[in-house]
Amino acid sequence: MGYDPLSEDQREVRELVRTLARERIAPRAAEIDETGEFPWDLVEVLREHEIFGLPFEERHGGTGTGTLMLLVAIEEVSKACATTGLVLAVQELGALALKLAGTDEQRERYLPRLASGEWLAAYALTEPGSGSDSAAMRTTARREDDAYVLDGGKRFITNAGVAGVYTVFAKTDPDAGHSGISCFVVEADTPGLEIGRIEPKMGIKGSTTGEVFFNDCRAPAGNLIGEEGEGFKVAMRVLDRSRPGIGAQALGIAQGATDYALEYAKSRETMGKPIVEHELVAAKLADMETKCEAARGLLYRFGLMADEGVDGPELTRASAMAKLYCSDVAMEVTTEAVQILGGYGYMKEYPVERMMRDAKITQIYEGTNEIQRLVIAREMVRANRTSLAPVG
Ligand SMILES: Cc1cc2nc3c(=O)[nH]c(=O)nc-3n(C[C@H](O)[C@H](O)[C@H](O)COP(=O)(O)OP(=O)(O)OC[C@H]3O[C@@H](n4cnc5c(N)ncnc54)[C@H](O)[C@@H]3O)c2cc1C
C-alpha cells in the first residue's frame, strides 16, 4: 500500500464507502445506465449508512467529517457508478448556500433533513439563455407582502423532480446585472413550482436533469438566503466549494476505468502474452495511473484547504484547478481505457464504454473547463508574483 494522506478515522470511512460501492452500488451501475431510472434504492443505501451526513456539522445531524472526507466518498462511489456519486455531490451543492449564508432558522429547518438524506437538494442557476453567463438570467422574484413571488424557468437542473428543496437564483432587480440577483430556498411542494421536461442524455443517465418552472410561485420572505442582491456572490462562493465534488466524481470515473483496464490487460492475450506485457499498452496504463494520482493530489489539497478554512482567491484557484484537471484526466483516461479493451471497450457489455460517456459531463457542468481556465488565468494575472527574470 502506497502513501496515504488520510487519517486513521478517514480511512475507516473510506473503507465503509468502498465496500458499499463494491457490494451494493457497482452491481446496479449498468442497469441504471440502461434504464435511466433515478436510483432511489441506492439513495436508501447512502441514507442507511449516514453517507449524506459526511459534509454536515454534528449540530445539524451530520458526522462533522468535513470536505476532504466528502470528496473521498464521492470518488469511491463514482468508481462504481457516476450517477450515484453525483447524488452525493449535488446534496452538497444544494446545501452550501444555506451553510454559507443561511440564517440559524433556515439551517435548522433544512440542514438536518439534507444531512440524513430525507430530502435531496438541487441548485437552480442555469436558464436557457444563461449558463456560463449567469447575469443574463431572466427569472425574477418580486417582494409582495410577506412573500417573494418567483416567475421564470430554469434548465438543466440536476435532481429536478426528485429534490425536496431547491436553491434558486432570481433577479430582484432585473436591471442591475450581477448585483440584481438574489438567492432563495424553495421547497418542492411550493405552489407554482413545476417540473418540465427531463432531458435524455449521453451519460449519468440515472440522474435527472430537467426544467424547473416558477409560475407565480410564492416563497415566504424568510426564504431569502443572505441579502437581496447578494445572490451572485453566494452562487460563486457555493461553486468554489462544490466544484471539486465534480472533480471527485471525475477522478472516481478515471480510477475505476484505469483499474478495469489493468485487470483486462492482465488477462487478455495477443501474440502469445498478456497485453499488459506489450510496452505500448503498459505505457498507456502508466500514464493513466500517473494522471489519476496527480489529479488526486490537487483534489485532496483542495479538501485539506477547505477543512482548514482557507477562503478567497486562493480557494477559488485551487477549486478551479482541481475540477479542471480531474475532469480532463477523466476524459483522457476513459478514452484510453476503451482503447485498451479494443473492440470490447466499445461494447456495452464492458463498463468502460459507460465510463467514457459519464466522464464527458464533468468537463461541462458546474462551470465549463473553459471557464475554469479563465478563472485560473485571472488569478495568475491578479497575483503579485516576483520573477527571477523580469520581462521587458
Ligand atoms: C447534465 C447536466 C447537469 C446540470 N446540472 C445543473 C444544475 O444542477 N444546476 C444548474 O444551475 N446548472 C446545471 N447544469 C448547467 C451547466 O452548468 C451549464 O450547462 C454549463 O455551465 C454551461 O452553460 P451552457 O450550457 O449555457 O453553455 P454556454 O455558456 O452557452 O457555453 C457554450 C460554450 O462556450 C464556452 N464559453 C462560454 N463563455 C465563454 C467565455 N467567456 N470564454 C470562453 N469560452 C466560453 C463554454 O465553455 C462552452 O464550451 C447542468 C448541465 C448538464 C448538461
Quick overview:
This protein is of the alpha+beta class. The protein folds into three domains: 8-116, Orthogonal Bundle (Butyryl-Coa Dehydrogenase, subunit A, domain 1); 121-229, Butyryl-CoA Dehydrogenase, subunit A, domain 2 (Beta Barrel); 232-382, Butyryl-CoA Dehydrogenase, subunit A, domain 3, CATH 1.20.140. Helix content is 52%, strand content 15%.
3D structure, described in words:
The chain has 392 residues and is α+β, with helices and mostly antiparallel strands. The chain has 10 helices and 10 strands. The strands form 3 sheets. Strands 1-4-5-8 form a 4-stranded mixed sheet. It has a 4-stranded antiparallel sheet with strand order 2-3-7-6, with no helix packed on it. The protein is globular, with a radius of gyration of 21 Å. The mean pLDDT is 97. The site of flavin-adenine dinucleotide (FAD) has 20 residues, from strand 1, strand 3 and helix 10.
CATH architecture of the largest domain: Up-down Bundle
N- to C-terminal separation?
Answer: 50 Å
Averaged pLDDT, please?
97
Q: Say what oligomer this is.
A: single chain
Main features:
binds flavin-adenine dinucleotide; 10 helices; alpha+beta; 4-stranded mixed beta sheet; single chain; Butyryl-CoA Dehydrogenase, subunit A, domain 3
SSE layout:
Layout: H1 8-35, H2 40-48, H3 66-80, H4 82-101, H5 104-116, E1 121-124, E2 140-144, E3 147-158, E4 165-171, E5 181-187, E6 193-198, E7 209-220, E8 224-225, H6 231-267, E9 269-270, E10 273-274, H7 279-307, H8 313-340, H9 351-361, H10 369-382
Parallel strand pairs: 1-4
Antiparallel strand pairs: 2-3, 3-7, 4-5, 5-8, 6-7, 9-10
